[in-house]
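Archive maintenance. Older records in this collection stored only the sequence; we are now back-filling the structure field for every entry so that each record is complete. The fields below show one back-filled record exactly as it appears after the update. Entries are processed alphabetically, and Mn2+ and Fe2+ transporters of the NRAMP family is next in the queue.

ARCHIVE ENTRY
Title: Mn2+ and Fe2+ transporters of the NRAMP family
Organism field: Flagellimonas zhangzhouensis
Length field: 414
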Amino acid sequence: MKALLKALGPGLLFASMAIGTSHLVLSTKAGAQYGWVMVIPIILANLFKYPFFEFGIRYTTVTEKSLIEGYSNLGKTYLWVYAIITLISTFTVLAALYVVTAGLCMNLFNVTSVGADIVSLLLFLFISVLLIVGKYRFLENSLKAVITILFVALLITTVMVLQKGPVPDAANYQRPEIFNEVGILFLIGLVGWMPTAVEASGWVSMWGMENLKTMKNKPTLKIALQEFNVGYILTGILALFFMIIGWMTLYGTGTELSGSSVVFADQLVNLFTVHIGNWAYFFIAVAAFATMFSTCMTAHDAISRVSVDVLQKLYPNQSLFSNKNAFTAMVLAMAIINWLVIILFSANMGNLVGLATFASFVLAPLLGWMNLKTVTSKDIPIENQPKLGLRILTYTGMVFLTLFALYYCWMLLM
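Back-filled structure field:
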């Protein structure tokens, strides 16, 4: 247990990063729009995607190298596939996360004098400073407190809404179909981003690398996987909490959750306070903001680290990407690029996120196969490679995601 506690880091960072949009927004909407049946896709997505993320920790713990280096060892084609997905994420994911977080911030502090673009800029600056000055250890330590607070707040709220029972249906309420075009597209988005996109396996690997650097004694593979499993299971439980809250408080009322980040933030916080009491408004608002703030911080850190690592592997002779200030420069570059995306493409943010969803979702089976190929390569001794049960789950996950991806492409072309 002592060794496990010391190894805590990448798993918690994964949980903190994943609990953002996919949980706070999509899980809540899933319960609110379609009810308890959404338990099934949430559990299946978390189950079938598990091996892809686990392989990131497995490869790094055994080899002390990043998963990106594993792709490079397989061949430049594999590395370029991951590089293209990372490039698309660079121009979409952070911008979307920061806009939602800005909305929560404006809601929490009742900011009305400036727009979401200015609040986003301040968040970009503040988080960039934290990442550059505090580095990995600060990120890890600060998020332990955030996850604890969020878990307690969600547990209390979930218990209370279950005790109170579901809200009565509105008059003439028509239950939405799941297997029509709208329902399928929502289901695809939920599965695609639950618990997060598959390319985040590379992010987990980079955090694993940083965690190894901060530890005097390298954790065993068993301990490293146990630590990751703690974070992964916590991620799944919190997704179900958000889904239950949306189901018990909104399903059957006909209430539409807004697409506006500021309005949605107010609706979300009110879901909690209706069941706990107005006295808890500030506490819940802070917890919700802390959730998205931590997601921004972890995603910003991860995409910056992965981008530097990809560039180092693609251009090994370029000193610009290998000097000690490369991470600092990339953190600032990500802040500037994504703030410009918010300014220039705010009206088309949905289309940009749709592009990121398409790339992540359609290429997820390929990334899953790449991860399996990496952890079964000559880099890893036979005794540390995935056992038969995990390999079967991996192939099942690839088939599951492939069928969804093919159906998604078919719907887009129809």
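Update note: The two ends are 54 Å apart (CA to CA). Residues 116-164 form the longest helix (49 residues).
Entry marked complete.
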